Amino acid sequence: AKARGRGAWCFFHEAMTQAARERLELESRLRLALAQGHLQMYYQPQIDIATGRIQGAEALVRWNDPQEGLISPARFIPVAETSGVIGPLGEWVVREVCRQGQQWREAGLPPLNLALNVSPRQFHLTDLAGCTAAALQASGFPAALLELEITESALAERTEEARQVLVRLRELGVRIAVDDFGTGYSSLAQLKRFPIDVLKIDQGFIRDIPQSEDDMAISAAIIAMGHSMGLSVLAEGVETEGQLAFLRERGCDSYQGYLCSRPVPADEFVALLRAQAES
Ligand code: C2E
Ligand code: CA
Ligand code: CA
Ligand code: CA
Fold first, then answer.
1. What is the spatial distance between Cα 225 and Cα 237, in angstroms, rounded to a whole number?
2. Atom of ligand 1 nearest to the CA of 259
3. Each residue of 181-205: pLDDT tens digit?
4. pLDDT digits (tens, 9 = 90+) for 124-160
5. Which residues form the EAL domain (predicted)?
6. Residue 149 Cα to ligand 2 middle (Å)
7. Peptide bond into 210 cis (omega under 30)
8. Do 59 and 39 form a contact (C-beta atoms < 8 A)?
């Protein structure tokens, strides 16, 4: 039994070091990718439900590895978070989105609201407001067109500090969206103290509409609650006409999802806008 126990331990130990090694390797490759310009922003249209027009986009990061191809943020953002690479990566994202937004303005495209993601550690441990102010200034992109998405769970920890960061961002003139709303445990009382502008209903509540009565009730409640607090409400992960019809009926302000488009590279996003302008 003893021998077997040790064997199991050895196996466990090896599996652990293997996982740790892979993590370290991914981390150093990610640093290199950032330095070599292998990260790229994709853009997913956000649609105004009342008019059916594209009002802006959520910017989502992609890692374009010469060998592996596209690597999903679901795989490397967690590594960036635990290793600290999220600092420089987050800074690059803010700068790149502001640069792209300003370039689109200069190309004569209609004003677009651009949203980007801020992960919990980036929100709590880096100088987000300072970094955002610098990116806006360097690019000339108007703060009023920039939106920062912070997850509900990031706002639920160290709430007084979180509130102060949001206040500083608000002073810059950027908008704040609460991402993945409904999956965290923020109370209404807490939410009321934060200067926020948009609630993004998590796609988990949209997926099973119209089959799930519960999810329809929850989504309707989030829309009503958001409106009663003067917030705009966006539904994410909308894939079907049935889901959109439900959201329209409930007065949801905007949506994003495969029904309109997957996240696409910048030039394809411009093509979507031009196609819309002609219709
Ligand atoms: P998220 O912010 O909740 O983004 C929504 C995810 O849902 C995106 O995955 C998007 O491609 C996907 N999605 C959009 N529409 C649909 C749909 O209709 N159906 C389904 N099934 N999925 C849809 P993606 O791009 O793989 O990003 C995953 C997560 O990685 C994001 O979740 C966000 O938390 C994080 N992330 C992405 N880009 C960045 C970034 O630039 N910075 C940071 N800190 N995190 C990022
Ligand atoms: Ca998001
Ligand atoms: Ca989300
Ligand atoms: Ca999510």
1. 20
2. 18
3. 988 877 777 888 999 999 999 999 9
4. 988 999 999 999 999 999 999 999 999 998 998 888 9
5. 23-277
6. 6
7. yes
8. no
In this structure, are strands 232-235 and 254-255 parallel, antiparallel, or unpaired? parallel
Distance between CA atoms of residues 46 and 276, nearest Å: 13
Q: How many residues does the chain have?
A: 279
pLDDT above 50 (res 46): yes
Task: Please name the residues in contact with 272: beta carbons below 8 A apart, sequence gap of 6 or more.
Answer: 45, 54, 261, 264
Which tokens is 159 given? 């709430």
Task: State if residue 119 touches ligand 1 by the CB under 6 angstroms criterion.
Answer: yes
**ipTM for this model:** 0.97
Q: How far is the CA of 24 from the centre of ligand 3 (A)?
A: 27
Atom of ligand 1 nearest to the CA of 256: 15
